[in-house]
Design goal:
Layout (H helix, E strand, L loop, with lengths): L9 H13 L4 E2 L10 E3 L4 E6 L1 H4 L3 H5 L6 H24 L3 E6 L5 H14 L5
Parallel strand pairs: 3-4
Antiparallel strand pairs: 1-2, 2-3
Helix pairs in contact: 1-5
Length: 127
Amino acid sequence: MSRIKGKLTKVEERGWAALKLAGIRFRKHPSGVLGKPDAGNKSKKLAIFFDSEFWHGHDWERQRGTIKSNRKFWVKKIERNIARDKEVNRRLRKQGWTVIRIWERDLTPSRLEKTVRKLKSRFSNIH
């Protein structure tokens, strides 16, 4: 796990590109924001996270059954990630932030255009 990057990943690069295409102004890894979002706009109270399906448990009930090696460790780790994500979302929203979580699969070339349209329509007022 020591070789797994936490910042400046391909997922983040694709996510930042999608935000730019949608015309959303942001900073990469804004400091002092709970949960360390991948992108954010402090003045608009906007926190954006680009989540990997594996690490953040997309479709977890199905995915959980596919883990074969070191199952106890991975199930515990991913379930803790899911719980932490929910807690971060709850606390940020309580502080008045808008939280966006974008799955890695929505940043693939085949889905990127749809993701950008969705972002534009939802956040057309954030420039």
